[in-house]
TrEMBL record:
Keyword Disulfide bond: no
Subcellular location: Cytoplasm
HAMAP family per the UniProt record, alphabetical: HisE
GO MF annotation, one: phosphoribosyl-ATP diphosphatase activity
Gene3D superfamilies, per database record: MazG-like (1.10.287.1080)
Name of this protein: Phosphoribosyl-ATP pyrophosphatase
InterPro entries documented for this protein: HisE (IPR008179), PRib-ATP_PPHydrolase-like (IPR021130)
Pfam families: PRA-PH
Keywords in alphabetical order: Amino-acid biosynthesis, ATP-binding, Cytoplasm, Histidine biosynthesis, Hydrolase, Nucleotide-binding
Amino acid sequence: MTQYKEQLGTTLDRLAETIDVRKGAAPESSYTASLLTGGAQKCAKKFGEESFEFALAAVTGDKQHIAEEAADVLYHFMVLLSASGVSTDKVSKILAHREGMSGHEEKSSRT
Ligand SMILES: N=c1c2ncn([C@@H]3O[C@H](COP(=O)(O)OP(=O)(O)OP(=O)(O)O)[C@@H](O)[C@H]3O)c2ncn1[C@@H]1O[C@H](COP(=O)(O)O)[C@@H](O)[C@H]1O
């Protein structure tokens, strides 16, 4: 197997750009476009299915299978985010704001 070293964030940034470009593509030529033309509802359905498959894989213990399902979830997450009109920057900002804050603390600060 070839060595592959890249930050996940870098790969996701590139994927976000690809998804953006695919917005104008023909659904017959692009799987991403076929999801996006169905709107947030279609993308959400697919994301739900892929998340469930990932959860099932996670309890099998097969690391390769888990990693493949995780990649499917991340792809469908990015497509759903795009279909919802929310930028990855917005999510990054929220995560950065939460850094160093306990999950318990963050939950009790929600309005
Ligand atoms: N990372 C991905 C990626 N991960 C998963 N998938 C697709 O997601 C689908 C999920 O698999 P399923 O078996 O659940 O889907 P399916 O049953 O075949 O399809 P449905 O009819 O149920 O929707 C498969 O078609 C996968 O190929 C992806 N499709 C695209 N990308 C990225 O998006 C880029 C653009 O792709 P296109 O838009 O197709 O050009 C690609 O170059 C990749 O970088």
